[in-house]
Write a structure and sequence with these properties.
This protein is 36% helix and 26% strand. With 247 residues, it is α/β, with parallel strands linked by helices. β7, α7 and β8 form a beta-alpha-beta unit. It is globular.
């Protein structure tokens, strides 16, 4: 198993940009004797939105966890082009509704990696938090409790927390699941804008509309990569039928 930040890719980026933001080669991962991912090989290009597509149990969340560094591969290689550590936004259900946190406090947690959990935020930290709140259109909700928010508002709060980490790589687990159509469209538009602003976005989804709005897709089934490419070429009826057919 090998995990590295690829300095060579970054040095060549001074004139032409890195050839990839993430590269995985023969990567496997799982949990305590339960293998989930099996020998995946793929590249994620910088300044793109990449959708991880597949049915429940296909390994999307596990792959995101590996890319985020919270799950260690059991075999293979993971290369990151040199940059800041990724910002990982989990599923909304991973953050309890009953936590006594305001929107601002939730977004401020994105600064803990820089400042530590118990140190006072600096003026610069507060400016970053304010910028993330404004960017997600939730500055007017800053004093509201998480449990008082709609699904779309809560999702934008979690993305704002990710933005507060000031990473050029944003990883999101099912960012539009459970949202109404208007909220899904708003989140999709925000992710497109983030790519334009210089962020590489990788998101897991089984929402085919969200996948079709991405620049690239990785198709997963039972922990194996079964296709990668542009959504228009990859998300065909025959391919999707094969991915979602019963094992």
């Amino acid at each position: 198993m090998k995990i590295m930040f690829n300095k060579q890719a970054q040095s060549s980026a001074t004139t032409t940009g890195p050839a990839f933001r993430i590269r995985i080669a023969e990567l496997s991962a799982g949990y305590a004797g339960h293998p989930v991912l099996h020998q995946l090989s793929a590249e994620i290009m910088p300044l793109t939105a990449t959708a991880l597509v597949g049915p429940n149990g296909s390994g999307k969340s596990t792959l995101l966890g590996v890319l985020a560094g919270v799950i260690q591969p059991t075999a293979g290689e993971l290369h990151h082009a040199d940059g800041r550590p990724p910002a990982f936004v989990p599923q909304r259900g991973a953050v309890g509704d009953t936590l006594p946190l305001t929107v601002r406090q939730t977004v401020e947690m994105g600064r803990w990696g820089e400042r530590g959990a118990w140190r006072r935020l600096t003026r610069q930290d507060r400016a970053v938090v304010n910028s993330a709140l404004e960017r997600m259109g939730i500055a007017d909700l800053a004093a509201r409790q998480l449990g008082e928010l709609s699904g779309g508002q809560r999702q934008r709060t979690l993305i704002a927390q990710g933005l507060a980490q000031e990473s050029d790589l944003l990883l999101l687990d099912e960012p539009t699941t459970g949202l109404d159509p208007e909220a899904r469209e708003r989140i999709a538009a925000l992710l497109t804008d983030l790519v334009t602003d210089g962020v590489t976005v990788v998101h897991a989804t089984h929402d085919l509309d969200a996948a079709r709005s991405a620049d690239a897709c990785l198709l997963l089934r039972e922990g194996r990569l079964v296709g990668q490419g542009e959504p228009g070429q990859l998300l065909t009826p025959s391919t999707l039928a094969r991915i979602w057919q019963p094992a």
